[in-house]
Design brief:
Low-confidence stretches: none
CATH topology: archaeoglobus fulgidus dsm 4304 fold
Helix content: 10-25%
CATH superfamily: archaeoglobus fulgidus dsm 4304 superfamily
Strand content: 25-35%
Number of domains: 1
Strand order of the largest sheet: 3-2-1-4-5-9-8-7-6
Shape: globular
Number of strands: 9
CATH architecture: 2-Layer Sandwich
Order of helices and strands: HEEEHEHEEEEEHH
Amino acid sequence: MLSLQHEHPWDLPPAEARETQQRLSQFVETADRLGEVKRVAGVDVGFDKRAGLTRAAVVVLEFPSLEFREQTLVTQPTRFPYVPGLLSFREAPAILAALESLQQLPDVILCDGQGIAHPRRFGIACHLGVLTDLPSIGVAKKRLIGSRDEPADTRGDWAALTHKGETLGAVLRSRMGVKPIYVSCGHRVGLETAVELVMQCTTRYRLPETTRRADRLASGK
C-alpha cells in the first residue's frame, strides 16, 4: 500500500509551488538506497485538453526479463496549468492515485521527465520519489537545463549533463543513430545505477520499455 512521507497542497500559486520544491529538495537522496530490483514501473501522463482531463498511466514490468506484470490508468480533472519547471504539480496527483491502485508497488519508478536535472533540483522523479520514498529515476526526452557534450554513437555511451559545475545527469545514447535521452537521479538511485537500469530496460527503441508502454497507455494508443 502506498504511504506518503510528505504531504502538501497541489493547487498552489506558482511562487508557492516553487517554494515547496525548494523545501522538499533537501530530502532527495542521490546515492543508491534500493534493494533487489524485481519490478520496474514506467509512469507517464497524457492530457485531454478539450475535456480538461489528466490521464496517468503506470505500467509494471518484471525485471530483468521486462515481462508485463500490471498496469493501471487513472483519469482526473486537470487542476494545474502548464508552467515550465512545475510539471509535477500538474501530473503527480493523478500518478499518485495510479500508484495507489496497483496490486504491488514497484521497486523502482522510471518517470517520463526530469529528476535533479531541474532548476531547483526537484523534477517530477524527485517529487514522486520523496513523497512515496520509492526509488525513482528521471528519463527525459529533452533537456531542461545544463550544458552537455554529445555522447559517442555507441549504444550505452553517455556524457555528463552539467550546470554551474555540478553533474546533474547523463546524456545517454540508448540506441545508435537516434537522439540521446536525459537520465538523472530522482530519489534513492545514484547516477551510474540509474544509467545501468535504464539501459537494462531498453530494447530496440530509443526509450526504455517502461516509459514506452506507459506513454502508449496514457495517450490511448
